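Researcher: Let's do a round of design. I'm pasting the structure tokens now; please hold your answer until I've finished.
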């Protein structure tokens, strides 16, 4: 078996782009696709291995966690047992994945899905289906299921079907025309050969605190087809016909996949602790919903014709934030809870990147920008729906009152630094936005108006603070924090959300400075200066999309289009983005698929398309 720069090949082919190379058992993060069912999601590598799956829900412990520990994490492998190359795609308009394996003697296609269920049939609570179709010739294949439960796993057979159990959890491994399942230790495996025209099927139903139902093959086949139909039916009703349509629609499908259907919450990513630097400590759990992302999320749903998702998400956010009102948490659990204690797991970490964290201690930070983002979200919702509920209106007025008393505090900022709190510029800008939107609500009669003079006074004081202490004439830019000289791409959000406390020439100059000082090619760093952590990180993809949108909104349309074209080309082969990219290698870094990256793409594409249409009039 050959190797390139230490990466071991799992399939050999004359086309390097068709190889999946693993280093010490770890696939490059760029090689992952994602499938999901609205409750959980799985990462599937190009070589057919399911290396990440949490059950029963997205924020549950991992049953397959090999992406974070190649030895102890567990996975579900399925691939030819001879050299091969791969091609893959999503079934058009779906989150169902097709991986085609091409060998010297034949071709086979694997279709992977976490199936969608209705309420009219008795089905397993969760179900991973892997259908294998022989397309031509003959292909020998091997598979192995290695589940890992946190409190031990026991393998037994029920009706001759292997079943792994641990406490109140159980999963079965059902195989049809896929070889005789063999139990060996804590794994179930099989081998088979498929010729053109033949079909095999592997099903992995899972149950948590309920009976495990063993499905019939016909039921599984029907559910797979119904899952494809359901995704396509949803996608065909979306509204976007502008530039970069394929990238926008894939991003919207990713966003839909990140929706936790039982509550309407939207997760930041499906993974935990994938590193921002290989071997570094910047490894965080993103399986929660951040207020930071709320305005982008609601805007995407509303712009692209997803009113049901917009409504469900807004009301989840209102119910979740009620638990901490009038203060806001930085993030909330997908069920709306706010208790997310951070702990470490005794795992190796992706390519040795420790610690492996679950939970997120940022929940306890003060981040003043969240008030602006929540108010912007409510502003978008009220515009679309024509009004606000009376209780929500009262709470928004109380939130504005709180901003008047808290905006002068230092905070951890949008980037959740773990250093000493500071007066971050973007936080102050979003406090300005919060009060500006509140005043607008009151003037429209949508929220109580008895404190409007106080809101106006505090908003003007915030603007004075920003303009006198957060703009550097030497840098010709708004800076990262008051009285400092470091730069921060987050101030672009001030412009995108409507901060208007200063001279527009200052914001235009800031955009130019950030592009020049934090940008390199299509990549943009988040900020300069220390943040309380060791090591470095990659370029943050959302910042690049924010820059493209800001360029379009300030009349620099050709630059915006050129940058956007480059950014769309940075996706992996199935259109996904991680949190960051290493500019030197193009490798993905951080959790994936990253909701904020895809949200920023949608926002930038919509803004640039609108600016192009305006320019053409």
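Researcher: That's everything. Go ahead.
Model: Designed sequence:
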């Amino acid at each position: 078996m050959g190797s390139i720069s230490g990466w071991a090949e799992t399939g050999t082919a004359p086309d390097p782009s068709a190889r999946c190379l693993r280093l010490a058992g770890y696939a490059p993060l760029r090689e992952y696709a994602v499938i999901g069912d609205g409750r959980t999601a799985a990462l599937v590598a190009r070589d057919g291995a399911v290396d990440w799956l949490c059950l029963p829900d997205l924020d549950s412990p991992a049953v397959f966690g090999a992406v974070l520990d190649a030895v102890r994490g567990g996975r579900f492998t399925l691939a030819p047992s001879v050299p091969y190359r791969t091609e893959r795609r999503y079934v058009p308009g779906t989150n169902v994945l097709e991986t085609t394996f091409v060998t010297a003697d034949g071709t086979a296609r694997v279709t992977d899905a976490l199936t969608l269920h209705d309420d009219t049939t008795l089905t397993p609570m969760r179900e991973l289906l892997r259908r294998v179709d022989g397309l031509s010739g003959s292909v020998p294949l091997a598979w192995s299921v290695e589940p890992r439960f946190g409190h031990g796993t026991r393998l037994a057979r029920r009706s001759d079907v292997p079943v792994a159990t641990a406490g109140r959890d159980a999963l079965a491994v059902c195989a049809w025309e896929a070889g005789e399942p063999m139990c060996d230790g804590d794994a179930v495996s099989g081998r088979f050969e498929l010729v053109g025209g033949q079909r095999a099927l592997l099903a992995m139903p899972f149950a948590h605190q309920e009976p495990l139902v063993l499905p019939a093959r016909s039921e599984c086949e029907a559910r797979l087809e119904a899952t494809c139909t359901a995704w396509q039916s949803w996608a065909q009703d979306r509204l976007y016909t502008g530039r970069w349509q394929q990238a926008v629609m894939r991003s919207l499908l990713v966003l839909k996949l990140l929706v936790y259907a039982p509550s309407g919450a939207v997760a930041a990513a499906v993974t935990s602790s994938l590193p921002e630097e290989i071997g570094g400590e910047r490894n965080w759990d993103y399986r929660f919903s951040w207020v930071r992302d709320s305005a982008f999320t609601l805007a995407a749903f509303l712009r692209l014709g997803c009113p049901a998702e917009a409504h469900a998400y807004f009301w989840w956010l209102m119910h979740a934030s009620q638990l901490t009102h009038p203060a806001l948490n930085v993030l909330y659990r997908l069920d709306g809870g706010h208790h997310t204690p951070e702990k470490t797991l005794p795992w190796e970490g992706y390519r040795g990147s420790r610690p492996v964290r679950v939970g997120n201690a940022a929940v306890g930070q003060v981040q003043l920008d969240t008030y602006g983002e929540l108010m912007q979200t409510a502003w978008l919702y009220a515009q679309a729906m024509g009004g606000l509920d009376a209780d929500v209106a009262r709470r928004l007025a109380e939130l504005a009152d709180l901003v008047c008393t808290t905006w002068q505090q230092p905070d951890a900022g949008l980037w959740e630094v773990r250093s000493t709190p500071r007066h971050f510029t973007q936080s102050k800008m979003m406090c300005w936005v919060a009060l500006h939107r509140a005043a607008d609500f009151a003037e429209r009669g949508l929220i109580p108006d008895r404190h409007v003079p106080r809101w106006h006074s505090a908003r003007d004081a915030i603007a004075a603070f920003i303009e006198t202490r957060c703009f550097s004439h030497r840098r010709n830019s708004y800076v990262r924090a008051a009285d400092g000289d470091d730069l921060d791409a987050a101030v672009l959000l001030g412009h995108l959300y409507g901060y208007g406390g200063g001279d527009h020439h200052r914001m235009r100059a800031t955009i130019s400075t950030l592009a020049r000082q934090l940008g390199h090619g299509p990549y943009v760093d988040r900020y300069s200066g220390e943040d309380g952590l060791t090591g470095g990180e990659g370029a943050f993809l959302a910042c690049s999309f924010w820059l493209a949108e800001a360029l379009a909104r300030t009349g620099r349309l050709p630059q915006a289009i050129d940058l956007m074209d480059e950014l769309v080309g940075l996706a992996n082969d199935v259109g996904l983005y991680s949190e960051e990219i290493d500019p030197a290698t193009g490798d993905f870094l951080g959790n994936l698929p990253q909701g904020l990256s895809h949200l920023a793409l949608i926002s930038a594409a919509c803004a640039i398309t609108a600016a192009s249409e305006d320019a053409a009039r």
